[in-house]
Specification:
The structure is a single chain. 47% of the residues lie in helices and 17% in strands. The protein is α/β, with parallel strands linked by helices. The protein has a single domain, classed as P-loop containing nucleotide triphosphate hydrolases (Rossmann fold, 3-Layer(aba) Sandwich). Helix 2 links the parallel strand 2 and strand 3. Bound molecules: adenosine-5'-triphosphate and magnesium ion (MG). It comes from Marivita geojedonensis.
């Protein structure tokens, strides 16, 4: 039922990858529909690489005229609806955000990413005012290093925390995550003789999915 969008005005922030990680993780336990609402169709491309997961469906959005009905339809069919958005503001992103119960904003640890994440928060706040309802959102640090944070990285973290909610869980930069785009499927389907660190990546993905569920419950009870 809940609709979760992945948004960021910065290209390459990690929207599609983070959506795949969450979608495949949630699909281990429940039904998920993912909507590819990016004209570049990277999510659809990923889905075409491997046989469909029994509880995960990936559909392509027909665009701004149909996104609202696509979301309604997906909500009636699946326990979670995830929407992968394009990396720039458009009527399509704005419609999808306005239909979302939660928006995840992936950001790296560079100033450009942080600026884009803060811009995206402002866009969501605008949408929320226009619709006269809260649209909860949180920043997800993605593509980060697992090493001790540098001063710049710490500075960026505190800037993001001042701007809005930030997930405790980070999705580190991991080969297992980026290789999903080549292999298709989820982390559990990766060939372990080919890809290192699959178990750590699964643990990272599980922590992320658990925190998403926790934040959703928190916002629904608020
Ligand atoms: N946690 C991660 N670990 C390793 N690589 C990552 C991670 N997140 C993203 N990447 C890589 O970074 C690149 C950009 O990621 P992705 O396509 O998810 O970003 P995006 O925000 O969807 O971009 P766009 O706006 O162009 O759609 C990809 O090559 C992807 O494999
Ligand atoms: Mg993308």
């Amino acid at each position: 039922m809940p609709v979760i969008s992945f948004a960021s005005s910065k290209g390459g922030a990690g929207k599609t990858t983070s959506a795949i990680i969450l979608g495949t993780e949630l699909a281990e336990g429940t039904s998920v529909i993912m909507i590819d609402a990016d004209p570049a169709q990277r999510l659809k491309r990923w889905a075409s690489l491997s046989p469909a997961h029994p509880s995960l469906d990936v559909i392509s959005s027909g665009g701004e005229r149909s996104i609202q009905s696509e979301i309604d339809d997906a909500k009636s069919k699946a326990a979670f609806v995830l929407i992968d958005l394009e990396g720039s503001a458009s009527r399509l992103t704005s419609f999808a955000i306005s239909e979302s119960d939660f928006v995840i904003i992936p950001s790296g640890e560079e100033q450009q990413d942080a600026d884009a994440a803060i811009d995206t928060l402002a866009e969501i706040a605008m949408e929320s005012r226009a619709r006269r309802r809260p649209i909860p959102a949180a920043i997800l640090l993605a593509r980060t290093s697992a090493a001790v944070k540098s001063r710049l990285e710490k500075h960026i973290h505190s800037e993001l925390k001042r701007a809005g909610r930030v997930f405790e869980t980070e999705l580190h930069r991991r080969t297992a995550f980026s290789s999903l785009h080549n292999a298709g499927g989820g982390l559990r389907q990766l060939d372990r003789s080919d890809v290192n660190g699959v178990d750590k990546a699964i643990a990272n993905a599980q922590a992320f999915a658990a925190e998403v569920v926790e934040l959703l419950e928190e916002t629904q009870n608020a």
